């Protein structure tokens, strides 16, 4: 049987429970999620996290704290003292907050950083016996051919050659993984953008790069070996391939969520139009406003879903 068919079957059997595919886990007495400063010996994961249905992740700990404050208010779950403890206290690698069924986790910058966090987060959800979880990356990005402040819901996460794949080196060999996201979820999020009508929301491909400067064809890094014209040609090729924004985590995020059978989406605001420049010149207030947009959109989606659960 081709491996993708058996993988598909395995996934169907899981029925939206979290899939980990590691035979070694069973023989471990305890599991230490080192970078989250959580472990199965001293924490009851099922009790603490078993009710999680929505996970939002983003690069900055500050953004993920502000998201939990926002969603708590939206869901009427505000803490009277305004206290939202960091569940990863004791490590400064990542920050994690929870209100009701919503978990908010920071992942730092770039593929290696989000990948480590996702390994540990996926195991956390697995140990907690969570089911039917939706995970959304709420991030920032550089746009192509879009007004700054536009929110892009990712259709496909592509690499720097515009292909929907993520390459991981395992035991010295390159393993290529698919980066499909949940199309239905992306459509629902786009619809939420339309309902809100507070800012432009579009669907498009997101290019995930290994670097912010040369990797994203910037002219303002410490090194640059190409001309402005070559930069513009590359961005035009990306646009022609359906790319509407560029960031640094979507491909591994999509690949790992797909492997673990978690419904996933990427929603990033564009901070600038890369065809017009490289430096981020908007004021602090404008940047803060832009960063809130994916939070507002995903907050609307979560509220809608929870209201729908209630009425069934
Ligand atoms: O979630 P964030 O805003 O961190 O995502 C993008 C991609 C990189 O991590 C970072 C670069 O500024 O922003
Ligand atoms: O241009 C940008 C802006 C935010 N994040 C990126 O990765 N690129």
Can you offer a commentary on this structure?
It is a single chain. The chain is α/β, with parallel strands linked by helices and about 300 residues long. It has one domain (about 5-310): 3-Layer(aba) Sandwich (Rossmann fold), CATH 3.40.50. Helices cover about 35% and strands about 25% of the residues. It is built from eight helices and twelve strands. It has helices at about 5-15, 45-50, 60-75, 110-125, 185-195, 230-240, 250-260, 285-310; strands at about 30-35, 40, 55-60, 95-100, 100-105, 135-145, 150-160, 165-170, 175-180, 200-210, 245, 265-275. Strands 6-11-10-7-12 form a five-stranded mixed beta barrel, surrounded by four helices. The longest helix has 27 residues, at about 285-310. Ligand LQZ7MJT6 binds next to strand 6.
Structural key phrases:
binds uracil, single chain, 312 residues, Rossmann fold, globular, 8 helices
What is this entry, summarized?
InterPro entries: Nucleoside_phosphorylase_CS, Nucleoside_phosphorylase_d, Nucleoside_phosphorylase_sf, Uridine_phosphorylase_euk. This is Uridine phosphorylase. The chain is of the alpha/beta class.
């Amino acid at each position: 049987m081709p491996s993708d068919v058996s993988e598909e079957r395995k996934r169907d059997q899981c029925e939206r429970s979290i899939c980990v595919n590691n035979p070694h886990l069973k023989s471990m007495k305890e599991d230490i999620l080192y970078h989250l400063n959580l472990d199965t010996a001293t924490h009851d994961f099922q009790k603490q996290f078993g009710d999680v249905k929505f996970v939002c992740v983003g690069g900055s700990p500050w953004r993920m704290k502000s998201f939990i404050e926002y969603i708590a208010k939206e869901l009427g779950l505000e803490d009277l003292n305004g206290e939202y403890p960091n569940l990863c206290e004791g490590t400064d690698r990542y920050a994690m907050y929870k209100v009701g069924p919503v978990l908010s986790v920071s992942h730092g910058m770039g593929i290696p950083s989000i990948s480590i966090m996702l390994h540990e987060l996926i195991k956390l959800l697995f140990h907690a016996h969570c089911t039917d979880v939706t995970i959304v990356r709420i991030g920032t990005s550089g746009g192509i051919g879009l007004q700054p402040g536009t929110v892009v819901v990712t259709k496909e996460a592509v690499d720097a050659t515009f292909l929907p794949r993520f390459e991981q080196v395992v035991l010295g060999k390159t393993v290529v993984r698919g980066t499909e996201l949940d199309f239905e979820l992306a459509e629902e999020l786009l619809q939420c953008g339309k309902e809100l009508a507070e800012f432009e929301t579009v669907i498009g491909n997101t290019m995930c790069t290994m670097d912010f400067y040369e990797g994203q064809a910037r002219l303002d890094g410490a090194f640059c070996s190409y001309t402005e014209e070559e930069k513009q040609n590359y961005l035009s090729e990306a646009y022609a391939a359906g790319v509407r924004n560029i960031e640094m985590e979507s491909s591994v995020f999509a690949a790992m969520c797909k492997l673990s059978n978690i419904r996933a989406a990427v929603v990033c605001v564009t901070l600038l139009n890369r065809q017009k420049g490289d430096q981020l010149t908007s004021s602090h207030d404008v940047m803060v406003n832009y960063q809130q947009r994916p939070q507002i959109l995903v907050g609307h989606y979560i509220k809608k879903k929870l209201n729908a659960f209630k009425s069934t």
